User: Fold this.
Amino acid sequence: MKVIVAVDSFKGSLSSLKVGEAIKIGIKKVFPSASIKIIPMGDGGEGTVEALVNATMGTFVTYEVTSPIGEPVESIVGILPNGTAVLEMASASGLVLVPQDKRNPLKATTWGTGELIRKVIDSGYKNILIGIGGSATNDGGAGMVQALGARLLDQEGRELPLGGEALINLKSIDLSDIDSRLSEINIKVMCDVTNPLCGPLGASYIYGPQKGATPEMIVTLEKSLENYARVIKEQLGVDVKDVPGAGAAGGLGAGLVAFTNAQLQNGVDTILDAIGFDELLPDYDIVISGEGRIDQQSIYGKLPIGVAKRALKFGKPVIAIVGSIGSGTEELYKHGLSSIISIANGPMSFTECMENAYELTVDAAERTFRIIKSSSCVF
Assistant:
């Protein structure tokens, strides 16, 4: 049996590489002679830099930037052999950087992501890939563009404070001091979702709750982003409100398109192309994918579905081993997944699952392949 293990990280618990190693151990308990290829993956969110650097034998550099709540953090950037710099907004403006009791999407800012872009440009890189996923923010990339020199002004001509809440007072945009080098930079955005900026499937309603937004906050943030999109359209001539992926990372996708002329592209496909995934598939029998939590939202560009769509073209079954299973997952089987297996093997709290994720993943992989061994499948 030959198995590809292409999994995302279990955020806050295991890196994609560790998840892959655990799955390999579980498979080997059932099929000791199995040939297993582990491909650490990402979808534009946390783990993307690691995945691309490992896939291409690149290198890492580190920059100090500002977290979503104003604290200094170290952000790792990948440098690919072709000179492309790969950034993760999660390492500068990510939810993992904010303690749960300090999460407030009304105030959280993408300023650090703007700092990171500027530092990469300072280092001489002209081709930039940015993974936008796992954000703590809902500011439409306003903090990012403010860090790059733009001024976002209220009716009195005063600069807006940082955070998505302030955008409800946006009246004008002053780009006279924005970093002029942006016109010479090619920015491509690896986007892990296709949500628009506003509306019931937009940044605030879909992703606000996981960042700590209450129903009241969501209404405020939605109005703020609607106003932000309106002013951008009126003054810059760019309509970002309904662009697929504009709602990614709390609307950072919209900000990058509007202010840096960035191109949004699917993060999963970018990485799968970089590692030559389609060329590998014909030689393997089965694919294992997975992520920390899988639910109906995974349809919108998440890793297991991206992998499953590729494998489906070659007639290869794909099983997702995941940290937890949310609602609406029956829809995922229509997109190429053969089965979904949770690592939880009995009643347990979320904390217990996180703390024992490695051992539970080994067990889940073993259970999965014991079913395969006892079935009529022949490999």
